[in-house]
């Protein structure tokens, strides 16, 4: 990495800007001068809040994001990246976009996950659909043999305001993916006081310990943001009782454990489960 010498005045400006914000565990900054308009513990909502990454290593407090294939709007084919197969060999994983003549001409929201072996022979091909062409595909070894599974985080439908992304976990099957989790939301809205559209949003980060015994549990860490775009300088985003209960439940943490062939929430009747239900 090269070192760049800044002029004295530029350095002062950069330092001053850094002091106006604070960073959370995932590197997202919140402008300090606007935090009085959001609930305690919330970030100021920006365009990156629901953009991921979504899956992290739980080995240390820094929560390093696991490698992912990320698509947003205009990309065509993604990959290839290494993919571990159950026979111990390493193949490749890629995502193909349907109906694309070029990366700049991709209107289709249909995709195919393609896994090949080390010799380029097809092992699996799974079609899926993602609204707004917005998704992540994350290979990670969770269950069974030494091969990877697939975590797919995608937008389930078009809506205004937009739906939060949902999660699928797929294991390679002979002709179709084997679902390892009931689809559920990894992001959404918290009920707020006033306004037709809630001003508060939540999301969860999925934490996997690659050294844990298999099937590996998946723990969750909640994060929150509020929209402060109102032109009224006295306006603040305030949670109602339902929204406050939801935020408190997500802050307590939850995990997915594997039983009877699927990942399941420990508490299927609590506030966290109510927020995560839905999906597609």
Task: Compose a concise summary of this entry.
This protein is mainly β. It contains three helices and 19 strands.
Model description:
- The chain is mainly beta.
- The protein has one domain.
- A hairpin with a 5-residue loop joins strand 1 and strand 2.
- The N terminus is likely disordered.
**Count of the separate structural domains:** 1
- Describe the main β-sheet briefly: 7 strands, mixed
Range of strand content: 35-45%
Determine the number of helices (DSSP H or I, runs of at least 4 residues): 3
User: What's the alpha carbon Rg, rounded to whole Å?
Assistant: 21 Å
What's the rounded overall pLDDT mean?
83
Shape: globular
**Helix percentage range:** 10-25%
Give the low-pLDDT segments.
Answer: 1-33
| Number of DSSP strand runs | 19
* Class from helix and strand fractions: mainly beta
Give the H and E element order: HEEEEEEEEEEEEEEEEEHEEH
Fill in the keyword field for this structure.
mainly beta, 280 residues
Indicate the topology.
Blueprint (H helix, E strand, L loop, with lengths): L7 H12 L1 E3 L5 E3 L11 E2 L10 E3 L11 E4 L5 E7 L5 E8 L12 E7 L5 E8 L4 E7 L8 E6 L11 E6 L6 E2 L4 E2 L1 E4 L9 E9 L9 E9 L14 H12 L1 E6 L2 E4 L5 H6 L4
Parallel strand pairs: 3-17, 4-16
Antiparallel strand pairs: 1-2, 5-10, 6-7, 7-8, 8-9, 10-11, 11-12, 12-13, 12-14, 15-16, 16-17, 17-18, 18-19
């Amino acid at each position: 990495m090269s070192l760049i010498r800044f002029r004295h005045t530029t350095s002062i400006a950069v330092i001053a800007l850094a002091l106006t914000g604070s960073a959370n565990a995932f590197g997202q900054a919140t402008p300090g001068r606007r935090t009085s308009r959001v609930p305690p513990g919330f970030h100021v909502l920006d365009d990156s809040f629901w953009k991921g990454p979504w899956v992290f290593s739980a080995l240390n407090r820094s929560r390093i994001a696991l490698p992912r294939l990320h698509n947003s709007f205009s990309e065509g084919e993604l990959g290839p990246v290494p993919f571990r197969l159950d026979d111990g060999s390493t193949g490749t994983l890629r995502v193909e976009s349907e109906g694309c003549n070029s990366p700049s001409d991709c209107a289709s929201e249909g995709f195919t996950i393609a896994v090949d072996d080390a010799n380029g022979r097809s092992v699996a091909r799974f079609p899926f659909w993602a609204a707004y062409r917005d998704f992540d595909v994350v290979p990670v070894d969770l269950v069974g043999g030494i091969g990877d599974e697939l975590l797919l985080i995608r937008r389930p439908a078009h809506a205004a305001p937009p739906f939060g992304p949902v999660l699928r976990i797929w294991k390679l099957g002979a002709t179709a993916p084997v679902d390892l989790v009931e689809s559920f939301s990894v992001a959404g809205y918290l009920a707020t006081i006033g306004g037709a559209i809630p001003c508060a949003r939540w999301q969860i980060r999925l934490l996997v310990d690659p050294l844990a015994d298999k099937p590996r549990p998946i723990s969750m860490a909640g994060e929150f943001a509020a929209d402060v775009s109102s032109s009224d300088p006295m306006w603040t985003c305030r949670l109602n009782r339902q929204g406050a209960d939801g935020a408190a439940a997500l802050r307590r943490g939850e995990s997915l454990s594997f039983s009877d062939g699927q990942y399941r929430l420990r508490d299927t009747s609590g506030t966290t489960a109510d927020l995560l239900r839905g999906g597609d």
